[in-house]
Amino acid sequence: MYSVQPKKLLIMNILDILKRYSDEDHRLSQKDIVEILKNEYNMLAERKAVKRNLMNLIDFGYEINYSESVRMVPGKDGKPEENYILSDFYLERDFTDSELRLLIDSLLFSKHIPYSQCKELVDKLSGLSNQYFRSRIKYISTLPDNAPQNKQLFYNIDVIDEAIAKSRKIQFQYNRYGLDKKPHAETFPNGTKKVYTVNPYQMVAANGRYYLICNYDKYDNVSNIRVDRITDIKLLDEPAKPKSRVPEIKNGFNLPKHMAEHVYMFAGESIPVTFRAKKYLVGDIIDWFGKDVTFYDETETEVSVRITVNENAMRLWALQYALHVKVLTPQKLRDNIKEDLKKAVENYI
What we know:
Elements: H1 10-21, H2 30-41, H3 47-59, E1 64-74, E2 80-91, H4 97-109, H5 115-126, H6 131-135, H7 153-166, E3 168-177, E4 183-185, E5 196-206, E6 209-215, E7 223-226, E8 230-239, H8 255-261, E9 270-278, H9 282-289, E10 294-296, E11 302-310, H10 311-320, E12 325-329, H11 331-346
Helix pairs in contact: 1-3, 4-5, 10-11
């Protein structure tokens, strides 16, 4: 139990009670608030004081809803008069429970946020609701701590965000996992760690991971780099290369188009591709490539598809859906996929 608190804290305690115990499905009467103040805050208060402070909170701009009813009570002259009773108080929240669940689930499905940081963010989000919501998400405590961890992730994001805003280059080391299940910085043959300098343009979340869309000075294309594989990042004073000097994005950066054409975040230019697919795959095709795909030559069971997509990404996607899809053009891509499938079969001979 709390020690006895000064009366000037009454309004803050009432607000805290509304945050912890109220929502549209759990409304509080003035009597309820008086009892919680007594039992949990060691504070005695009359209903009139509670009502006055609730009205003050509303005047201060807090969205507190309540119901109002009228009852007849004896007046000073003995005649009945109307008395307005306020009850069913609850605090209107910035996020609904379903919105918070969506945000929390997005964190849980993420593959790039370390467990400890993910758990901390989930706790902060759940704190935006009340105790009833928190009691329904206890399963989060069983989140497995088996994902690769980069404790520099959020720092990386801050530095990259600042670099993009200030149009400056960044420098970093890039890591790959070894058989020891630990990240190791890429090195030259002599053992010296490689240091990369890039022009950062955009950060995106794809396939459950954060990617940095950037450019290396000596190349004309854009590259997609895993942010969670970056360590020892530095913000440089050198200005970044303008997008106008990168042919792939010189006419502006269309992020939805870029994401649809780079489904696996491979670098390189996109090419026109046509393929034949089973009709039951239409939903998957739209999920992967967006609504800019063109369907034609429909039959009862199949349909042809025309898209613009990164060649390497399409090659991998076609192998993933090899039982359901046949690439028609370009011929070079068809030949590469044929060769991939032959090698795959040889692995099982």
